[in-house]
Amino acid sequence: KAGVTQTPRYLIKTRGQQVTLSCSPISGHRSVSWYQQTPGQGLQFLFEYFSETQRNKGNFPGRFSGRQFSNSRSEMNVSTLELGDSALYLCASSLESGAGRGSYNEQFFGPGTRLTVL
Amino acid sequence: AQSVSQHNHHVILSEAASLELGCNYSYGGTVNLFWYVQYPGQHLQLLLKYFSGDPLVKGIKGFEAEFIKSKFSFNLRKPSVQWSDTAEYFCAVTLYNQGGKLIFGQGTELSVKP
After folding, report:
1. Which residues in chain B have Cβ-Cβ distances shorter than 8 Å to A110?
2. By CB neighbour count within 10 A (0-12 exposed, 13-18 middle, 19+ buried), where does B88 fall?
3. A79-118 core/surface letters (b: 16 or more CB in 10 A; e: else)
């Protein structure tokens, strides 16, 4: 079974531009979560989508947004890029989401998109 | 706010030494617990997880972790490390009703000298 894929793998943008990152989850997975990884802040949760609805949101400004399509693929968008947005953006998918225990909540990560803002 | 803290930022060991990485979380309710590993140039991989039951869980590559509820801890252990264990290790939790939101610790970089 193919893993989580993310495109593009590398991206260079300048301040003020906007960017869209894409994530394709493992086949059959319906939940997609996004994380930002930086040396200073570590791994921080951005948001989670399940069945095309945002289920959870982290503490990021409104410039960060996302969506999920009916095939569970997800995109995240960052508008008006700032230097501090330079990071590795990770996508993770899981079978289900929400309350409870169990391996249906186990998240599998993609390789990430390395975004550099100049 | 809920948080996860990892005691060590950088650990250096020789091959065959024993490893214990500390992890504590701050949340009084029910949690799911995870350890992830990120090898150089590779993506995050799940080492082991705890949902319920036996508090001593075994993962891949000889790693194990013990959940101590009274101490809010989930420490990672390995009896004998290898050079190939050089990586960054992340402890993470999800709250019972927020399964899709992993809260990560800052990570521990492990360097194993051959």
Report:
1. 43
2. middle
3. eebeeebbbbbbbbbbbbbbeebeeebbbbbbbbbebebe
Residue A110 near chain B (CB below 8 Å) = yes
Q: Tell me which residue of B91, B102, B109 sits closest to B36, measured CA to CA.
A: B91
Taking the CA atoms of residue A33, residue B53, residue B58 and residue B22 in that order, the dihedral angle to the nearest 10 degrees is: 70
DSSP state of A72: S
| pLDDT tens digits along B57-75 | 999 999 999 999 999 999 9
Confidence of residue A95 (pLDDT cuts 50, 70, 90): confident
Distance from C-alpha of A3 to C-alpha of A74, rounded to nearest angstrom: 14
3-state percent helix, strand, coil for chain A, nearest multiple of 5 = 5, 50, 45
